[in-house]
Amino acid sequence: MLKIAIPNKGRLSKPALALLNEAGIKVESGRQLFCKCGDIEILFVRANDIPEYVQDGAADLGITGIDIVKETEARVNVLLKLGFGRSKLVVASPKNSSINSKKDIKNGLRVATEFPNLTKKYFKKIGKKARILKVSGATEITPYLGVADLIVDLSSTGTTLELNNLRAIDTLLETEAVLIGSKKYIRHSIATSLKSVIDAKGMRYLMVNVPVKKLEMVKKTIPSMESPTIIDLAEKNYKAVHTVVQSSQIHDLIHNLKKLGCKDILVLSIESLVK
Question: What span, in angstroms and rounded, lies between the C-alpha atoms of 6 and 88?
Fold first, then answer.
């Protein structure tokens, strides 16, 4: 039985569940520690523990943040970027301090973070020595309490930093949710299924009946993935054209197709798309 570990709470939990469900893995979420979906077992665990569970073989695959993978230095393969949970791991200083950029950082400053390994690497890279204080939450309050001069924390919009009178002065890395696998998995069919759902987002299936004399012009007009599908119709003066286009292009595309004499335009949503 294939075991997939996903976050039991936090910013990655609901999107991970939604993606699995869209890919046909119907997960019953709740207070349970695991559930079975056919021949797949879903494990609900802390996002921070997932890389090590996958590394040690307790789970075959896992969904977590690339920041956590890098922090734990787990020996796993990143199989797929999942497109949600995007944020930045930043160094931030109090607004009332004299530290406006990394150039202002001096040796011996106290830095609070949930990412001590990545923080150590950052300060080594910029050639500064720091006193790193590992915390398990509420990192933003540590400068206010007087226990830290800087913090290293995740920031999505900067709003939380702003509310706590902090400002980002440098970025360590950009992160998002990823599907990881143990070292025996270089690729996996689950990754293909999830990618098909991700690739389908923002895409639409377009069907339109095109006058034969305008077919070549329409083929140039439609921004298809590769080449549109052309189908004969009972009405010999028309051909059916099927293709996949971005949803943002639909409005202008329909307008242009109508001008070319096309009719019976149908636009459908796509659940999955395997390229």
Answer: 21
Structural domains in the chain (count): 3
Q: Please name the residues in contact with 205: beta carbons below 8 A apart, sequence gap of 6 or more.
A: 242, 243, 244, 267, 268, 269, 270
In single-letter form, the type of residue at position 127 comes to: G
- Written as six digits, the tokens of 52 are 């090590």
DSSP state of 201: T
Here the contacts of 116-121 (C-beta below 8 Å, separation 24 or greater) are 116/71, 117/70, 117/71, 117/72, 117/73, 118/67, 118/70, 118/71, 118/89, 118/152, 118/172, 118/173, 119/152, 119/172
Q: What is the pLDDT of residues 194-208, one digit of tens each?
A: 999 999 998 999 999
Q: Which pLDDT tens digit goes with each residue over 21-48?
A: 999 998 876 667 888 888 899 999 999 9
Domain region containing 103: 87-174
- What CATH number is given to the structural domain containing 246? 3.30.70.120
Q: What is the pLDDT of residue 174?
A: 96
Note whether 55 and 15 are same-domain residues. Answer: yes
